[in-house]
Specification:
Elements: H1 17-24, H2 38-60, H3 62-77, H4 85-109, E1 117-121, E2 124-128, E3 134-138, E4 153-156, E5 159-162, E6 169-172, E7 175-178, E8 184-185, E9 191-199, E10 203-209, E11 214-224, E12 231-232, E13 239-241, E14 251-258, E15 261-264, H5 265-271
Parallel strand pairs: 3-15
Antiparallel strand pairs: 1-2, 4-7, 5-6, 7-14, 8-13, 9-10, 9-12, 10-11, 11-13, 11-14, 14-15
GO molecular function, one term: metalloendopeptidase activity
Protein name: Peptidase M23-like protein
Organism: Allofournierella massiliensis
């Protein structure tokens, strides 16, 4: 049998007044006064770390202060879509790690200056001295030194830096003068060839003994044109620029010694320009 459709409608089921009040009542929030806010703790940590880094950089090298200022501004105004307290905690933790890395990198970039650089150790921030046999003092010889090559670009200064092979902190014992491979290398001052040799680090290198305990060393040479014991003058060619040994490209690694201690050769060369 077919069901007979009718237009009859059923009356709506209405909620009671008590049920309506229950539905409209705002939910109560559980209070836990003993619970500490991890977000506030992380914010304080971030602010403290930023302040420490900025003060250190601004004191040692004002130009690098702008780098930290730009990084902080980006961190502050960057739009962040957070779904809850857990995401904020993750973001804050990552920010702390990033700031720590930036601080270490910035300290290493200070190595090119003729000052003691800052290093972070077990006792916190401290002055980082040069390794034994090296000095951060400026040495300007009594006699003017001549440039060993012309038309160069300084690609790495003397002092603390990030090692190009390992990425770790390393003390660079000279300055790197990048110039075309095959360029002639002249002695910075007249003297006697003390060494004409090769090793894994310097590659082909020449060491010249001058007066007053002064010694200059020329490394990563392509070819060597002099021998040990030979007297050389400014007009002689010691060899040519190359990339032998531990080198990332053609350049002259130039070192300056005085009484068996290395010094930054930059000031000595600038005095001769």
């Amino acid at each position: 049998m077919w069901n007979v459709e009718t237009n009859e409608t059923m009356p709506p089921v209405l909620a009671s007044r008590q049920e309506v009040e229950q539905l409209l009542r705002p939910p109560t929030q559980r209070q836990n006064p003993e619970r500490k806010n991890p977000v506030l703790t992380l914010q304080i940590l971030i602010c403290g770390l930023i302040l420490l880094c900025v003060v250190a950089v601004r004191t040692i090298s004002p130009p690098l202060y702008e780098t930290f200022q730009a990084g902080y501004r980006q961190l502050r105004y960057q739009g962040i879509a957070l779904s809850g307290e857990e995401e904020l905690v993750k973001f804050a933790s990552a920010a702390v790690r990033d700031l720590s890395v930036q601080a270490m990198e910035t300290m290493q970039r200070l190595s090119g200056e003729n000052t003691l650089t800052l290093g972070y150790g077990a006792g916190g921030w401290s002055r980082r001295a040069a390794p034994e046999g090296n000095s951060l003092e400026t040495l300007v010889p009594g006699n003017t030194l001549s440039l060993p090559v012309r038309g160069y670009t300084v690609t790495s200064d003397y002092g603390w830096r990030s090692d190009p092979f390992t990425g770790k902190a390393d003390f660079h014992t000279g300055i790197d003068l990048a110039v075309a491979e095959g360029t002639g290398i002249h002695p910075a001052w007249s003297g006697i060839v003390q060494k004409s040799a090769w090793n894994a680090s310097y590659g082909n290198y020449v060491q010249v003994l001058h007066e007053n305990g002064l010694v200059t060393r020329y490394c990563h040479m392509q070819y060597i044109f002099v021998r040990q014991g030979q007297r050389v003058t400014l007009d002689d060619v010691l060899g040519t620029v190359g990339q032998t040994g531990a080198a990332t490209g053609p350049h002259l690694h130039f070192e300056l010694f005085c009484n068996d201690v290395r010094y930054d050769p930059a000031k000595a060369l600038e005095a001769g320009v």
